[in-house]
Predict the structure.
Amino acid sequence: MQRWFKRLLLGAAVLLGASVAQAAQWQALPKPMPVQTPGKVEVIEFFWYGCPHCYHLEPSLETWVKKLPADVQFRRIHAAWNSGMQVHAQLYATVQTLKLDDKLNMPIFNAIHKDNVELRDESVLNDWIAKQPGINAKNFMKTYKSFSSQTYARLSPQYTRDYGINAVPTFVVGGKYMTSVADAGSEADLYKVLEQLIAKVRNKQ
């Protein structure tokens, strides 16, 4: 085989390998999903309060979210595959309804993963929330028991299935593309891939 042809094959193999490696960093959703706010580039994090990977990602994710441009909308959906996750979904629905994400998401993660507090037990949650500064515990528990929070918990497995989520944390960009720390290769690379996907959606690709 001539030398130039060997080089051509080698170059093609390198390009193919790079292409496969790049493609592995994200995947297209089998069925595009509608975005919440037309005209915005939507980034959704599917997460679970009980997930240690979500817990470890939370500090850097909070920093990244604060720097997002005005045309990008970040939101979360609490994933659920079982009843225990649904109870945590009910807790997140309460946090979201009361707009307490900035005040309570990290404390909830710490309570579960660092302090081993069983927040799925309603009496334990009631005692814990009463100790959180600046939180109206009575209003919080009323919202927790509300029809809307219970409905969110009941529907959370459906949201998880609709997007084809089988692991957390998983991110969906523009209702079209999905990635994760595992797909991206590292926590630092995750944000690079997310920014690439944001640009892709922004450019209508």
